[in-house]
Amino acid sequence: MKKILMGLLALTLSATMFAETGSGAELVDSIFKGTSDTGNKFGIGAGVGVSDSIYKGAEDKAYPMPLLDINYYDLYVKGATIGYSFYRDDAFAASLFVDPLAGFAVDGADLARGYDNIDDRKFQAMFGIRLDAETGFYGVRTGLSAQVGEHGGEGKISAFKAYRVDDKLTIVPSIHVKGYSGDYTDYYFGVTSDEARRNSKIDRAYKADAAYSIGINLTADYRLTDNVALMAFLGVEKFSSEISDSPIVDDGVLYLVGIGAKYYF
User: Fold this and answer.
1) What's the whole-model pTM score?
2) Across 138-227, where does the E strand assignment appear?
3) Mean residue pLDDT across the chain
4) Which CATH superfamily groups domain 2-264?
């Protein structure tokens, strides 16, 4: 659940960036990691995100989301992600970043009875690189990122197009595909023999192999004033069988929805 909230926060941040630059240079996806905005700025705000959980019996909840959107020359902070843009022009951008809250963290006690004696899954710090490019095809842009941490790696390719409805409203549909290494999926979704023995509803150990997911998102940004932006977003993520077949995973599909607001100084 915590991982999904970071994705919701990322959607909100990137939507605001669209409204400001008008260039379509940022990607809207579950983990926003870059920016092509060359101006310095400082934005703070709050939002509320709601999602179901990928884990068995973990309750659906609404959570507040603090929002940070900071650019200082080539340095940026987007949500919890800190990055450095080492190259950018009108058609291409590249950055390095660190995400201290990556992964599908969950406390074992939050799962349904019979599954709740699994070990906790923790966040991990992941370091990565992100590339964004203009395709030249009807205003569609693409992004490619790769990151690695203590418990494996994750990569993503994504595409989006920004539709500017008027001077205030921007709508951004996007699609992405993520890939997860075997170490990554096994840490978050695998089940050890010891965990299987401790839980009455888990009948076997499970080793999760490398996997992927496909996501579709829709983000709307409304510029209420020069300093205030309102946001809404929704999305769905479908995980491959290597994840959905895990004994501790519900059905391998996640739905996201949320709203937020931000003030820029």
Assistant:
1) 0.83
2) 140-149, 152-160, 163-164, 169-180, 211-223
3) 84
4) monomeric porin ompg (2.40.160.40)
